[in-house]
């Protein structure tokens, strides 16, 4: 583990986090994960075996061998990944380079995410596709406006309880 971690963030055994990765507060990364050049928000839950930002070879290169890159790691990890707040990523999912995952999104176990995921979307499959949204537009707006995911745990609990009670 060598990235930057927020308050009360936990990294599971055998997970590899590169030095370019920034992970927010109150986030849990399970065991055997590999995360490169990513920005991960607060209150995320990342299952075991998840890969975020694996290196990608340039398909238009004459050779696909890393032996011909000036800096293999840098050349294979050009685009950063962005995982927003309160995202749940299921076991063994892969989030490809350059993908942005929105607030409150869910990525199903074993999914391969090749394109951006909107706020509160639930995506599954290979490649991952949206199967539903967690909340209707009005509830999404209320949650986003509350900004609970940018608060400390005590304040967040109060806001979440208020949002639940207003259903």
Structure description:
It is a single chain. The protein has 167 residues and is an alpha/beta fold. It has two domains: 4-134, Hexapeptide repeat proteins (UDP N-Acetylglucosamine Acyltransferase, domain 1), CATH 2.160.10; 135-167, no CATH class. It is built from three helices and 17 strands. The strands form three sheets. It has a seven-stranded mixed beta sheet, with no helix packed on it. A five-stranded parallel beta sheet has the order 1-4-7-10-13, with no helix packed on it. The mean pLDDT is 93.
Q: Quick recap of the structure?
A:
The chain is α/β, with parallel strands linked by helices and 167 residues long.
Our count of domains comes out at 2
Distance from first to last alpha carbon? 41 Å
Name the CATH homologous superfamily of the largest domain. Answer: Hexapeptide repeat proteins
What is the CATH topology classification name of the largest domain?
Answer: UDP N-Acetylglucosamine Acyltransferase, domain 1
Beta-strand proportion: 15-25%
What is the N-to-C order of secondary-structure elements (H for helix, E for strand)? Answer: EEEEEEEEEHEEEEEEEEHH
* SS class: alpha/beta
Query: Roughly what percent helix?
Result: 10-25%
* Major β-sheet strand ordering: 2-5-8-11-14-16-17
Given the structure, what is the number of helices?
3
Approximate shape: globular
The description of the largest β-sheet is: 7 strands, mixed
The number of E-state strands comes to: 17
What is the overall pLDDT average? 93
CATH class of the largest domain: Mainly Beta
The CATH architecture designation of the largest domain is 3 Solenoid
């Amino acid at each position: 583990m060598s990235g930057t971690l927020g308050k009360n963030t936990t990294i599971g055994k055998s997970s590899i986090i590169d030095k370019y990765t920034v992970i927010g507060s109150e986030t849990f990364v399970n065991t055997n994960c590999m995360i490169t050049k990513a920005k991960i928000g607060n209150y995320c839950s990342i299952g075991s075996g998840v890969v975020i930002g694996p290196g990608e070879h340039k398909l238009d290169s004459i050779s696909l061998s890393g032996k011909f890159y000036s800096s293999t790691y840098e050349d294979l990890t050009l685009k950063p990944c962005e995982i927003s707040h309160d995202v749940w990523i299921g076991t063994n999912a892969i989030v490809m380079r350059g993908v942005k995952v929105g607030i409150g999104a869910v990525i199903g176990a074993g999914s391969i995410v090749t394109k951006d995921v909107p706020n509160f979307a639930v995506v599954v499959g290979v490649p991952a596709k949206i199967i539903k949204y967690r909340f209707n537009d009005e509830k999404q707006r209320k949650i986003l406006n509350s900004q609970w995911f940018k608060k400390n745990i005590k304040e967040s609990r109060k806001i979440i309880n208020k949002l639940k009670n207003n259903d």
